[in-house]
Every structure is written in C-alpha cells, then in structure tokens.
Amino acid sequence: MKIGIIGAGQLGRMLALSGYPLGLRFVFLDQSEDAPGAQVGRIIKGAFDDPRALAELAANVDVVTFDVENVPVDAVRDIAAKKPFLPPPSALGGSQDRLDEKTLFRRLKIPTPEFAAVDSQDDLIRAVEKIGLPGVLKTRRLGYDGRGQYFLRTRDDIEIAWTTLGSVPLIYEGFVDFSREVSIIGVRSTKGEIACYPLSANTHSQGILRYSIAPYRSATLQRQAETYLKRLMKHFDYAGILTIEFFVKRGQLIANEMAPRVHNSGHWTIEGAATSQFENHVRAILGLPLGSTQPIGHSAMVNFIGTIPTAAAVLKIPGVHYHSYGKEPRPNRKLGHCTVVAASASARDKSLRQLLKVRDSK
Ligand SMILES: Nc1ncnc2c1ncn2[C@@H]1O[C@H](COP(=O)(O)OP(=O)(O)O)[C@@H](O)[C@H]1O
Ligand SMILES: [Mg+2]
Q1: Distance, CA of 3 to chain centre
Q2: Measured between alpha carbons, how far apart are the two ends of the chain, in Å?
C-alpha cells in the first residue's frame, strides 16, 4: 500500500518513518524539494492547490492524507471524490477558520472562550465592549505558532491591533486566565474503532509550543476531554488522528482549537506510548486495528526552535531520544525535538531540567 501525504514537513516525515515497518510506502506533495519528507520519500513538487500535482499524487497512491492544515479544501474535493482522502475534507475545512471552529464547538456544547467576528474597527470596538479586556484578536485563517495574533490589554490597543491585522477577516476572543494548557489526542479508524491518548500538559511561549509533559493525569479532565473529542469525531465521521487544545480554568476545560492531524504535543508518543500517534494515524486511515495508546512511563518533549543542539550534547541525558528534522535553522522554525522517557515522574523531571539547560545554553 502507498500513502500520499500533502505536505512534507516534519509531521509527514514522522508519519512515513512510522509506516515503513508496516510495509507501507509514501509519496509527498510539497513546494519544496528539500522539505524533511524528502529524506524518506519522493516529493511531487507543487503548491497544495495545484490540480496537476494533486492529481499526480492521487494517481500514485491508495490513500491521501495531509500533514498541514492550510490545504485548500476546494482544491482537494476532486481527488477526495476518487480516492480515500482522510481525515475528511469537512474536518480539514472546519479547522481552517477560527470563527467556524468556535461556532461548531459552541453548537456541539464544547466550552470555548467568548468570541465575536471582526470585519471592521467598529466591530472590534463592539467586540471589546461585549466581551471585555484583556482579549486576543486573531486572523480567522492561516494562523499558526502564534502568528496572526494581537493581545489587547487596554482600549488604547484597539487601533494598533486593527492596523496590524485588519486587512483580513478576524475574530476577537476573551483572554482566558488559564492555570494550564492541555491537549487530547485521539484516533478513530475507518472501521469506527476509537482510542485516546492520555492528556499532555503543554507550555507555550510567544504562541509556540516549547515543551509538553505526558501523561498529565487527571481522571476528571481526561473524561471530559475524551467526551468532547468523541463528539467531534462523530460529527465529522472522522478517520485519523484528531487533536483538541484546551485551556484549564477552575478545573474545567475550555477548547481553544482543534487540529485534524498528528500534533506537536503528541511527539512524546513515539517513544512514550505503546503505539505512536503517527503509526495510529496510518493504521486508522487504512482501516487496520488500532494500537494501544497506553503510556510507557513518564515522558517530556522539548521543541528546538530556531536553534538545535547536537545529538552529542543531549544523548548523555538519561532516557533521552533525539529527533532532528534536517531543516535549515531560521528564527522561530521548529528544527527538532527531544523526548525523555523515565520510570518515574521525578526522574523524568530531572532529565527534563537537564534538557532545558542544554537547550538554553548559548
Ligand atoms: N483566548 C486566549 N486566552 C489566553 N491565551 C490564549 C488565547 N488564545 C491563544 N492564547 C495563547 O496563544 C497560544 C497560541 O494560540 P492558538 O489559538 O492555539 O493559535 P495557533 O494556531 O497559533 O496555535 C495558545 O496556546 C495560548 O497559549
Ligand atoms: Mg494552538
């Protein structure tokens, strides 16, 4: 069997790496011929909405999936009509517009921050009056890693926020004074089988995930998160990995966003769970039985952003696993990650501290 992946970033590369032992082969579509996926598969060069490149990809594989969210839904409808395209285009579309996404959360009774559509400076003034301050103005589309966001603290920020972002459709959200951020990652196969990973606790700075700790144990939050995730899976008749990012406030989950794909906060599952999110994604879209999502011990995952230490500098830390994506260093670019797996939470935390020290030395 051959799987086509739209996008050849590190997520696509890790999908392929997980699928080779199963006897699968991979082909990518990407604008860049030296994207990380090129190390492990052929790249068909083209834009994500290039009909010729999409048709060539579909013609060469049995199933098409994607490793990025900004694949134009209209462009993939043609191939989705001819080849299994999973997760379904409806889920891809549903995650691309923050206004649609939050409207859906509300409709499915999944708690989400207060929000309002903003298409003019007057809309923003009204939104701030209704929802209050502080708040976050975000582009509805194409934002990632904190890009396309402006945090408003006082009314004086309205004008600058509008001038900075106002050329595209926006959403204003109330700022959630959260005690922590967590994510749930789950998987549903084409046969309807479902499995969920334990929650991961995620630390962001400047909108970018810096490190995750898993499993984050809270029976109540785990139950709540799984309920919301399954509701979304059912709504989309989903297949593949689905992620929801939450804020935790006063012991309750508030959904921030969803991702219809493997997720950075699940990289720990490669070494820290019985079956990785990548392998389970592949199994799910092929209709194979899912693998166990049980954690193996206690894990932490640290992202390397902008710079990456050498393998030699980190491999002496107990329980550490090193992943370099082979990308050219650039500010704010995810270049690799390390996962620590340990038998106890305290041993994990000790290795995590060492890892963060190496990351921050320089
Ligand atoms: N409404 C909010 N209240 C508090 N913090 C927020 C809010 N929206 C975003 N953030 C912070 O910014 C990070 C990135 O925002 P997010 O909406 O997840 O966008 P992205 O698509 O860039 O990941 C979040 O993980 C959180 O730390
Ligand atoms: Mg996010």
Answers
A1: 20
A2: 45
Predicted confidence band of residue 160 (pLDDT cuts 50, 70, 90): very high
- pLDDT (tens digit, 9 = 90+) per residue, 94-123? 999 999 999 999 999 999 999 999 999 999
Ligand 2 centroid to Cα of residue 76, in Å, is 24
**Is a pLDDT exceeding 80 seen at residue 362?**
no
Mean residue pLDDT across the chain = 97
C-alpha 170/C-alpha 172 separation (Å) is 7
Angstrom CA distances, 263 to 58, 154, 168, 304, 315, stand at: 24, 34, 26, 15, 24
Residue type, 66: F
Of the ligands numbered here, which is closest to the C-alpha atom of 243? 2
Ligand 1 centre from 167 Cα, in Å? 21
Distance (Å, whole) CA 237 – CA 191: 11
Whether the CB of 207 sits within 6 Å of ligand 1:
yes
Distance CA 324, CA 285 (A): 26
CA-nearest of 344, 334, 280, 256 to 302 is: 334
User: Is ligand 1 within 6 A of the CB of residue 69?
Assistant: no
**CA-proximal residue: ligand 1, atom 11 (nearest):** 207
Distances (CA, A) of 177 to 127, 206, 225, 250, 351: 18, 16, 19, 10, 29
β-sheet bridge partners, residue 184: 244
Name every residue whose Cβ is closer than 8 Å to that of residue 348 and which is 6 or more positions away in sequence: 213, 297, 298, 299, 300, 319, 340, 341, 342
Q: What is the pLDDT of residues 291-348, one digit of tens each?
A: 999 999 999 999 999 999 999 999 999 999 999 999 999 999 999 999 999 999 999 9
205-225 mean pLDDT: 97
H helices within 141-264, ranges in order? 157-165, 219-236
Is 0.70 topped by the overall pTM?
yes
The whole-angstrom distance between residue 356's C-alpha and the CA centroid of its chain comes to 22
